[in-house]
Design goal:
Radius of gyration: 21 Å
Number of helices: 18
Oligomer: single chain
CATH topology: Amino acid/polyamine transporter I
Distance between the termini: 32 Å
Strand order of the largest sheet: 1-2
Structural class: mainly alpha
Shape: globular
Order of helices and strands: HHHHHHHHHHHHHHEEHHHH
CATH superfamily: Amino acid/polyamine transporter I
Length: 441
């Protein structure tokens, strides 16, 4: 009937979902994190990547189970709402994730401009703004068009890492990979740092309404993305440290480019620089996609004005939500410092990850009979061991931020409380109805 609200089209298959997930995870961060991490872990940087992957996997399993149960946009809003039944907590969790994603888009666009400046002398902030505007137009064309570009750029990102790995193959086994200058303390410190190179797997669930067979493909997409990137990261760790001594690697602004050029020459340095550039571009695309889907999903649930859930007649893309995402992202460019914005992004992600793991634990307890197409392994009765470890590890990482970063990070939920208080009286009514129907059954 013409009166029915229009819906997002289910146009995403497993391959595109995995490419999207890998494109989310492999950002420009991996191209620079290796240096700082090697300064802490020494030759044990590969071990730091392994520990970071395990921490990410625990939370990834929680997202996989919840994503199979509730394949919706604005997923965190749905998960926390189903578990807690509290409108404010549900709103705050998604609000924090939304602002985190938009802030990340601004951060990475500045990172792109910074990379670009090393090739051509152009003003950084205007270039970042032009990039955001152009990619927002791409996102408005529809999910198929956006993911075609995303898939190509994800392949470029993987090729960049494979170049480093192939350069290091002839030198594998030539050093002691357990040389740890700062012991296991240094390795654990490096694992906290490289954990941020895994953030992005969570964004897959926000494509639940556009994914074919979401109950099956969402869990598969999350787990395959984490496994593939883990293998790549560990191999990159082995290769980089085999090519360049850890103390030299730690002082480089472009450690992977430096490592590849050790055997492949200066051409490799240029190639890796461009690979980092395209990888950064890809990250901005996926962040703009997920931010618009979060806004759309919240509006559809009644948490934000309904106008934000409007879809294009031809594209079926949430164009109003995309426009709002662009305006907010542009406003964050004025903050300047990439490091400050990145700290806010990391803090917000870990805060929401902690809530997601706790939500899974609570749902297991209060609603054990709910249909779970995918169920995280390792349980004792209702208690999910993986979700428990995920919650503890994410909270532990939150305590590693300095006082200034914590204060900045807490601005996210505070801004959410303000937004919640000025919301209209009908806020959350549809979510409440669903909760009454499903909780406890």
């Amino acid at each position: 009937m013409s009166g029915r609200p229009r819906k997002l089209k289910r146009a995403i298959g497993l391959f595109q979902l995995v490419a999207y997930g890998i494109g989310n995870i492999i950002g420009a961060g991996i191209y620079v994190l290796v240096g700082a991490a090697s300064g802490l872990a020494g030759n044990g940087i590969w071990l730091a990547f392994l520990i970071g992957a395990v921490i990410a996997l625990f939370t990834g399993l929680s997202y996989a189970e919840l994503g199979s149960m509730y394949p919706h946009a604005a997923s965190e809003y749905m998960y926390v709402g189903r578990a807690s039944g509290r409108r404010m907590l549900s709103f705050l969790s998604e609000w924090v994730m939304l602002i985190t994603e938009i802030v990340a888009a601004a951060t990475v666009s500045l990172g792109f401009a910074l990379y670009f400046q090393s090739i051509y002398a152009v003003p950084m902030v205007p270039l970042a703004a032009i990039l955001l505007c152009g990619l927002t137009l791409l996102v408005m064309l529809g999910i198929k068009e956006s993911l075609k570009v995303n898939t190509v750029l994800s392949i470029v990102a993987v090729i960049g890492l494979l170049i480093v790995i192939s350069a290091g193959v002839p030198r594998l086994g030539t050093i002691n990979y357990l040389e740890l200058p700062h012991g296991m303390t240094g390795v654990l410190g490096a694992s906290i740092l490289v954990f941020f190179a895994y953030i992005g797997f969570d964004n897959i669930v926000n494509l639940g309404e556009e994914t074919k067979k979401p109950h099956i493909n969402i869990p598969k997409g999350i787990l395959i993305s984490i496994v593939v990137t883990t293998i790549l990261y560990i191999l990159v760790g082995f290769a980089a440290i085999s090519l360049v001594p850890w103390n030299t690697l730690s002082t480089s602004d472009a450690p992977l480019a430096l490592a590849a050029s050790a055997t492949l020459g200066p051409v490799a340095f240029v190639v890796l620089t461009f690979a980092a550039l395209f990888t950064t571009l890809n990250t901005v695309i996926v962040l703009l996609i997920v931010s618009s889907r979060i806004i759309y999903g919240m509006a559809k649930e009644g948490a934000l004005p309904s106008v934000l859930s409007k879809l294009g007649k031809k594209t079926s893309a949430p164009y109003v939500a995309s426009a709002v995402t662009l305006v907010v992202a542009l406003s964050f460019l004025s903050l300047g410092g990439i490091d400050i914005i990145a700290e806010i992004t990391s803090f917000g992600s870990l805060l929401v990850f902690t809530l997601i793991n706790l939500s899974l634990l609570h749902l297991r307890k209060i609603a054990p009979n709910l249909k779970r197409p995918f169920k995280a392994p390792l349980s004792i009765g209702w208690l999910s061991i993986t979700a428990l470890i995920g919650a503890i590890s994410c909270f532990a990482l939150l305590t590693q931020f300095d006082a200034e970063s914590i204060l900045l990070g807490l601005m996210l939920p505070v801004s959410g409380i303000i937004m919640y208080l000025i919301s209209n009286r009908n806020f959350g009514m549809r979510l409440d109805s669903a909760l009454l129907e499903r909780r406890g059954r």
